[in-house]
Amino acid sequence: MVDVFEQVEEELRSDRYKRLARTWLPVAAVVLVVALIGALGWWGWDSYNTNRAAKGAEAYDRGMEALRAEKPMDARAAFEEAVNVGNGAYKSLALQQQAGLAVSANKFPDAVRLFDEAAKASKDPILSDPPALKAAFLLMDTAPLEEIEKRLTPLTDDKRPLHAFAQEALALARLQHGKVKEAREAFVLLQLGQNVSDDVRQRASAAIEAIDAGTAGNLKDIIAAADKAPVAPVAAPTQSPALVGPAQQ
Known about the structure:
Largest sheet: none
Strand content: under 5%
């Protein structure tokens, strides 16, 4: 009798396993297929980005070599190629170089457009903030204050890499448009700030002295000095931008 009971229980257990297999095996197969597709997709995207970074680096290096050889036409062509074939980082760098060539040719509207495109080409503030700041400086004498404030305010956050330069530019713009009190307060904060370069601190002190002495008419000289300040090096990364973090870039 015991053997009969054991045989019946074994049959029931076998039927239960079969039902479980029919229920869950298709689900497991779908999960495995989705995982495989995801892994292949990530591998393909990573390879695509790496390939674009390599092509962008090659074209960008040729552009820099042409600049050093004083061949602006060849440089412009190489940078255009880097924009078309490179990843976001090299596209941003190449657009900034093109904007620099436009500035040299006194084509300031083109330079502003190229700087704006460079700022949008990368989501990394280390790459996007320098061209955004340069575009604001180029528009300082012609654009309304509202546009300058719209451009600069996001860059003034303490977590942004060029926040001190952006705060200085915003103070200069407000001073230029007659907002003396707001400008002086910003210059004082820059003068006393901890994470402020000596150059920015000195220019802030000069601006405060000019405001207090009533000689803020020298503003153009201060703006020119700020505009020429090296806010960030525009050079090719030592590693592929697709493969390194923001700090390394």
